Amino acid sequence: MKKIEGFPEGFLWGGATAANQFEGAYNLGGKGLSTADMVKFVPKKERGEGFSLDVSRTEIEVILNGKVEAVFPKRFGVDFYHHYKEDIALLAEMGFKIFRLSINWARIFPNGDDAKPNEEGLVFYDKVFDECLKYDMEPLVTLSHYETPLNLTMKYNGWADRRVIDFFINYADTVFRRYKNKVKYWLTFNEINIITLSPYTGGGVLVEDAENPLELSYQAGHHQFVASSLVTKLGHEINPEFKIGCMLARMTTYPETNNPEDVLKAQKENQINLFFTDVQARGEYPSYMNRYFYENNITIQKERGDEEILKTYPVDFISFSYYMTATASSKSSDNQVNGNFISGMKNTYLETSDWGWQIDPIGLRWTLKDFYDRYQLPLFIVENGLGAYDKVEEDGSIHDAYRIDYLQKHIEQMKEAVIDGVDLMGYTSWGCIDLVSASTSEMSKRYGYIYVDQDDEGNGTLKRLKKDSFYWYKKVISTNGNELSK
């Protein structure tokens, strides 16, 4: 039997972004408003304990009436719209095999329910994909990455309304046909489980008037499940070579102790998280959700044929984000940490980032093995990285050894998982070029190999600077992950 020694030939090394945090030009090229364009920057000192990413209908109406004096960072991102050639050239210099980005739905269909697409928006992505392919860089495209057209929220309450399925299919059909010879790898929904944690972010759903907000969120999630399956079917019909995956915010949870009650609680947290990939990969609702739905007074309204659709058209591969792990305890405590929609007890065995996110490279290996044992499908890590403060030295250099250390340790564990037998397709670390944070809408929380001169309020030259990690990751890619030293 042949010994597995490391990453396979053709492993897809790259980086990841999202249009709403990166692209900018929110009111150019015929683009309509998206839900992300309504998210304002709130300084850390003003966030408080109950800080939420959700935006209410009243808040949106006030913003649209021009009565809010605030900064909306996701409207300008880091202006990839005008810098895409420069940015893609920098990624190519690092040797990227693949570049994950999203299409902003409202740039193609400004209102979401338009009869015809916006040609100017389609042309923009033509140019972006052509630029990627010029460097033999595969695009990995997310169809919906927290960018629901705002009109769908105001008119239909986003994914809470089943009619949005047809609008999404029309959008997917348009871009699949347009880019069928330019894009091979697709994701339907980014971090699909976020629909239940931040309904506005995950699906443009307003829950403030709902009798049972959790039920409404899971109902919206069901509509996304059906849409994802139908889009997977459609994509394979348009181009049988398409590889279409789902994407989960993986929130791996450990029990705090070997107390059976802690173990049971951690198991439940993991099941609630993995429910979404169970549906998209296995094609059916798992029985363990029956009790959860009963206890939370949740009834999912399904139409005839939904279950057959889910079963017949599962995804080709599973992708996920991984930043940290959580710890579950059956006892209440103030000793908690929070990060990336995740919270739990502090794990005393782990270090924490500048933002209090616990750093757990070995947890990534465990997560990969657990995923592969559960589904036996190819896996793709499409988000992973360290958000940190970066300092630009007088000579323009940025020494981010802390980021290299984080990535090095996680890639080492990825390699171990591959040797363990996991089928891992690729790795796109998050925010390969500095961008606006999804959770806090700030620029000061930086992930990239490339520094962008811009502050939290949008001030700066937008000049791109290479960090030390730029050169390190270039070496990692050129050696297919065999050389990880600093």
Layout: helices, strands, pairs:
Layout: E1 12-16, H1 19-22, H2 44-47, H3 57-64, H4 73-76, H5 80-94, E2 98-102, H6 105-108, H7 119-134, E3 138-144, H8 150-156, H9 164-178, E4 185-189, H10 199-203, H11 213-238, E5 243-249, E6 253-255, H12 260-282, H13 288-295, H14 306-312, E7 317-321, E8 326-328, E9 336-339, E10 342-345, E11 351-352, E12 358-359, H15 361-375, E13 379-383, H16 401-419, E14 424-430, E15 450-452, E16 464-466, H17 468-478
Parallel strand pairs: 1-2, 1-14, 2-3, 3-4, 4-5, 5-7, 6-8, 7-13, 13-14
Antiparallel strand pairs: 9-10, 11-12, 15-16
CA-based shape: globular
**Number of separate structural domains:** 1
CATH superfamily: Glycosidases
| Radius of gyration of CA atoms, rounded to a whole number | 21 Å
- Model regions low in confidence, pLDDT < 50 over at least 5 residues: none
CATH class: Alpha Beta
Largest beta-sheet details: 8 strands, parallel, barrel
Number of strands: 16
What's the end-to-end separation, in Å? 34 Å
| Proportion in helices | 25-40%
Number of helical elements? 17
CATH fold name: TIM Barrel
Oligomeric assembly: single chain
**Category from helices, strands and their pairing:** alpha/beta
Please tell me the overall pLDDT.
Answer: 95
